[in-house]
């Protein structure tokens, strides 16, 4: 059990038989009435974000999340196969479970699997990945307005806005949190 007064960003808790991670929180001490904690929580089972308010000092369950290193092996239809790097056990996740992550996954890529008491909640990507540009418009000389961008499609199918100097075949660093271009690799 953990007190809501001890909330930190990234803490995993169990509320109403669901597993949440704390995205944001605020301690509120109104002039009249009891203090409370306003929080924004992300459900690790379905990805939904909810806002919850707790009384100050209220205790809730702490969820111990396990992270293990795994390798992404291959896709077969809507199923994606991973292998545990220590035990070599293989398991599959569906495209529905990996909706956002599929924008960045390549075969033989190392990621971390997030699980709670044996239940796989999803995967944890590195903060940036290297992806090759497979399709983009050619740069036009003289089209150099400051901050100008163009659309580029990378090898996983993700479309990102990139600077005008990026060409097909370039390898880019893409931020996996926002799905945005960071730099050339």
What can you see in these coordinates?
With 185 residues, the chain is mainly β. It has 3 domains: 1-60, Roll (SH3 type barrels), CATH 2.30.30; 64-122, Beta Barrel (OB fold (Dihydrolipoamide Acetyltransferase, E2P)), CATH 2.40.50.140; 127-182, Beta Barrel (OB fold (Dihydrolipoamide Acetyltransferase, E2P)), CATH 2.40.50.140. It is 0% helix and 55% strand. The protein has no helices and 16 strands. The chain has strands at residues 2-3, 12-15, 18-28, 36-43, 49-55, 59-62, 66-76, 79-84, 90-94, 110-116, 119-124, 128-136, 149-154, 159-163, 171-175, 180-184. The strands form 3 sheets. Strands 1-6-2-3-4-5 form a 6-stranded antiparallel sheet, with no helix packed on it. Strand 7 and strand 8 (79-84) form a beta hairpin. The chain is flat and about 65 Å long.
Structural class: mainly beta
How many angstroms does the end-to-end distance come to? Answer: 44 Å
Number of domains: 3
Examine the secondary-structure arrangement and name the CATH architecture of the largest domain.
Answer: Roll
Mean pLDDT: 88
**Helix content class:** under 10%
- Under CATH at level 1, the class of the largest domain stands as Mainly Beta
CATH fold-level topology of the largest domain: SH3 type barrels
Subcellular location: Cytoplasm
Protein name: Elongation factor P
Domain Translation elongation factor P/YeiP central: 67-121
Organism: Paenibacillus xylanivorans
